[in-house]
Amino acid sequence: MASFATDDDWWRDAVVYQVYPRSFADTDGDGMGDLPGVRARLGYLAELGVDALWLSPFYTSPQADAGYDVADYRDVDPMFGTLADFDALVADAHALGIRVIVDLVPNHSSDRHPWFQEALRGERRDRYIFRDAPNDWESVFGGPAWTQTPDGQWYLHLFAPEQPDLNWENPEVRAEFRDILRFWLDRGVDGFRVDVAHGMIKDAGLPDVGPKEGRQVELLGDERVPYFDQDGVHDIYREWRPILDSYPGGRMAVAEAWVASPERLARYVQPDELHQAFSFDFMMADYHAKSFRTVIEKSLAEAELVGAPTTWVLSNHDKPRHVTRHGGLARARAATLLMLALPGSAYLYNGEELGLPEVLDLPDELRQDPAFKRSGESRDGCRVPLPWTTEPGCGWREPWLPIPEEWRELSAEAQQDDPGSTLNLYRAALRLRKEHPALGGGTLRWLEVPAPELREDVLALERSPGLAVVLNTGDEPVSLAGLGLSGEVLLSSGPQPDPGAVAPDTTIWLQLGSATS
Description:
The protein is an alpha/beta fold and 517 residues long. The chain has helices at residues 21-24, 35-40, 42-48, 83-95, 114-120, 171-186, 233-245, 262-266, 280-284, 289-306, 322-325, 329-341, 370-375, 412-415, 422-435; strands at residues 15-19, 52-55, 59-60, 72-76, 99-104, 130-131, 146-148, 154-156, 191-194, 252-255, 276-277, 311-313, 345-349, 445-446, 458-463, 467-472, 478-479, 487-492, 501-502, 506-512.
């Protein structure tokens, strides 16, 4: 492994593991995960084979939106530990060769932030967005994006009312976040995941969106709206990039950006802005060979526009887990093996390596997602704590969301020594990804599927040198010979009853033994 000080391009093909701290591992028995819990499981992440971990927010917060409402950007919430715990976590992770990325939430603060408390007293309101009358903007979580204060003015919150939007036209806000970046970089973090990276700047004059069918949130990713993806947001990232570049070891930033076109997304990863942007199209693709190919081609084209690496993701803390979304574990494993074979970097969400499904039957009174209260939609089902042991409680005592009893059989302990487990599939895939010269960075070449009737269900590609990847989303086995392929199967996402064929809902990695067509 190259040292942290010299491997500036580590992020271009890294596998990054998202830790949702409250649901990862608990050390003090209060039912809420914490930073010491993450630190205690670093060996698990090292054995899994990830290059970095991304910590969702652990900052001081009243937890109106699971920590995405930050009251103090420079401290750890007591429910998660202390700054000393954070420092120890970073030191131990680095000793294991694992980098640490932290979430940054710049579009909005908590309503408990000292700045907003001043604003409510009528002081320094220019650090937020206040006006005398609301416009027609809607909250992403449902309902209006404006709340009235006792003195009659209204403030903007594109998410929950407890998350007032900061005014990024104010130089003081910009200076504050430059200092926040340096604070965490000085503590050794290797990068930032930028929450709502398409936010911050609003169209001048705050014009109405105008009449639309359905909720405004349904426009995101398809149409531009006056409060997201404004050109001025790129000036912010051009201010941040020199700060990141001034630290050794390839400090980086990845954008959570929902935009309307590949060209718009490419602007976020220009050489003087952010390093990566998530490929949400891949996460949202249907489970079908044709759908996967369409979004892969689009994502590669986006990246090629500016020479940035692609950044793949199948699940995160905001979307249903892909076991459920794709219709079962076999399909989820097949999609994962496809993703991990693609050029660029990949982001994993904690628990997906255990094959966890979405929890669909949580009692309403236990749900904590603020979107549930406003729109009836809930992200709690993908945030249920991870099962670690086969014992009752799965290694937790009164977890903040109940863990299904059947997850004892999906626990890390249950899967540890099972060669066919999903956990060991991930371990094998990440090990091969590091070892095989064709995987990680580079390019891909699509392989022809000769039979027209198979082209809807089979995706085949080559990673040079000498590795073919074949996904079969159809109902029948597909002959490798019929695809013009032969060689050794290095890894399969599922059982292969016929070694000369790819079973339904299966992806294989094939070391080529003959010329490809």
